Structure formats: C-alpha cells, structure tokens
C-alpha cells in the first residue's frame, strides 16, 4: 500500500536579501503591492519588510509594461493585495532572479503523513508530494515522517534498506517516492 505524504507551506518564506539600512539579511513579505501607472506604462512591486529594522524594500514584479499587455485579472489581484499572488510571485524563478533574492523556508512548512499507521510495517512505500517548491533534505523528511533520527536514516540508505529513484542526499523540491525495508 502506497502512503502519501505532503510537504505543505504553513506561511510565506522569508526573503533573503541585504537590508540597505541595517545590513540584516531577512525580509518578510508584507502581502502588499505598490502599483504605479504613468500614461500607458505600469510598474508593480511587492513590498517586503526588514525583519530587524522594519525598513521597506520593493521587489519588482512589473517594470515599464504597457498597461494593455497586463492581464486584467493580474491587475485586480495586485490592487487587492492578493496573498495568494504574493506566494506565487515569491515562487516565480523570474521574479527571484530579477530581484536577486533567495527564499528561506526554515519553519515555514510541515509534513503531513496522514497518520502513523505505517510505522509498524516491515516495508513501506511512500510517495512524497510538494504543495509548493520548498527545498528540503529528503533525509530530514524521512526521519520526521518515520520517527527516526537522521543518522538512522543515513544508516538505512548505506545498508540499502532505504531506496529511491532520486538521490536522497542534498535538497529536493520536487515529488519523489521511496521504499523503506526494516
């Protein structure tokens, strides 16, 4: 029987970027947008607040775009300060690259295993799905989901009792499956 685990975001991740006021490197997304139109051109920014001093910084979303080329539903979401749009834009690699930012997902996600009935079986097959592109070490997920230490999970990998089609070292943010034999 295949167990389904889901990595779910619990809040927005922190934005890693240097503050020009206090040299801190963590910002939190305010969920607010600033939109500025000049004749036929429009700019839009996502506002982020420094975690240390509260200084506001702007992340460019739209830059000097023709108003007619922007989807009306996107404009509505910007004007409504749509929190879902904030989450989408933080996940967007183009926005992250343009603004030279990274995301800090520490303490911003949880693992939903659907219960602990799998813990007593000899062999468990698990499908791990990511509800958002959250980079997490598979060893950490498996340890948390199975109630093991990370060292124990590493030992099971070395002994060949924990196998997967993907590399279990490093970080993953995409769906994967694994089999654990006790």
TrEMBL record:
It comes from Streptomyces shaanxiensis. This is DUF1062 domain-containing protein. It comes from the Bacteria. It holds the Pfam family DUF1062. InterPro entries: DUF1062.
